Amino acid sequence: MTDAEKNALIAQNNQLREDLNYSSAFVDEAENRLLPQVPEQRQARVEDGFSHINRLAGDARAMRTMLEGLRNQRDLIASGAVQTEAARRDKALNASVSNILDSMDDMDKATTGLSKFSSSIGGTLSDVSNNVNIHIESNPAVRAAGDNLYAQLDSLSAQLDSLSAFGRDDSTEVLENLSAINTRFNSMTDLLRNERDRLNSIADDGGIFEDASAYENSTSRISACRNEGIVSGDKGVGGIAGTIGIEYDLDPDKDILRTNDRSLDYSFGVSAVILDSENMARVEGRGDYAGGISGKMEIGYLSGNKNTGDVDAENGRFIGGIAGFSNGTLNNNTARCRVTGQKNVGGISGYGTTLTGNSAAVTILGEEEYAGSIAGKVEKLDADALQGNVYYGGNYGAIDNIDYAGMAEESATPLDTLLVKFMMGDRLLGMHEVKPGTVLQDVAFPEAEQKEGFFIQWDQPMDTVIDDDLVVKASYYLPVAMLDAPENYHDSNKPVLMVDGQFMEDDTLGFTMPEENHYVIEIPDDGLTERKVRVHKPEWKNYSFTVNGQAVETEDFGDYLVFVTGESKLDITITKKTLPYGTIVTAALGVIALVASVVFYIKKSAGKIKQH
User: What pTM does this model have?
Assistant: First the structure.
């Protein structure tokens, strides 16, 4: 072995030892709860520690490459291709290198497992300061990786013990630090084995956290909140709270305060409560877990909350009018909305465990599997966990489209009020509860922000009879100042009739023409009490002008006759005036007599002049 080879091997061995020492120090800190408390510093320390653990795999492979080179050299010595005086070293190399390579096979496998395991555990640790929660109970990959790693590390420890003992006989530089390395590996093995056992215990025994959420004993709660603004996101979207859960890591007592004085073999009582809060706006999710109050509730207690905003996650699972997913308690909540999702869709909860006294008046849209007016799916049909939930109407039964008496069923009496919501785009302007049969014009409309030059248009007719929950939408529009009749006067390009007003863009004038100069019109409602109507003049000079059978005075305005009316349905008739026969004869005789008198007078005057 040349000096260069020895130096390279020693350098690689030192690198391996350095990473093991650094990793061991990090492990000691984690084990003794000495990691920094400042989230940014804690994050940096965790990431740094696990980067050294993951680098052990690369160290092992690099060491393996160097040792394989030594074995090749040994083979050359054995074949006589290298100086025979080196044969004395062949015996030592043959034994030591072969044993090292055998051990390195196990080390390679172990460090690969370590890398995978640390990535899995590291996800839980390194994401702590980013508030990313990983539910250990639902992560079987952690246990599988851990079990495999410990078996490999146990085997590796035995290999290293044997190798260290053999190395003392040969006294080669390569084996100089293997005893220390073995100690470090054993320390890491013990810590990770303990952590594996703790995680397994969480999975098997229900965890070290006990959900103590309830109204009467909660010291941490959200109450009397109100949201009127649209909420949009990817996963875990809620009108009041997104996700309610617990952070799992190696040091849980730094995240959640203990509620008792137990020893280190402790459990924690945790509480998360939302009371008497209301969401009135649309909740949109692009993925799973969306709810009117909370998107995902791993623990907690929701009581007395109300949601009237639509919950829409067309491609999502676990979508609910109150909570998308709930492992806690939903009590006395009310949902009146539309809920859209792909799977596990419910008026109160997409998936739930404990539901009591909730009510829902919802429409379920877009589901493919597990949908209900109360819940899409529940943990179990238990009368203690499900009590007194009712729904009103809708298009689905209570739980997965099935009613269960006393637990979740349709109400025996209909709702005594209906909900009218006034919207401007996605913004809620106001909301009223009214009796069935109320006419929309009798409901107080909210004040909407005025824009100069624009008018507000409501999309529902004022005479709408309200027999179901109703959404009335407003929009801004520029008024149309005049509506023309579809017929022109004779061969001109002028309409026979025009109406002035403040009309909407899609308004049209109701118009029929039974005969020439006879028009029947209906003017769309524009909110004005009076409008100016223009009718083209007839060809005659003498005519009568009537509206709805009554003579009306008009003014001339170019080719049009103009009048003002407050009515919307008009029957307009223009009739030519003619004189009766007797009147014409009398007038003609009068004219003849007048002419005769004039002639007689002229003749008489002429005779007098002549005599004179």
Answer: 0.51
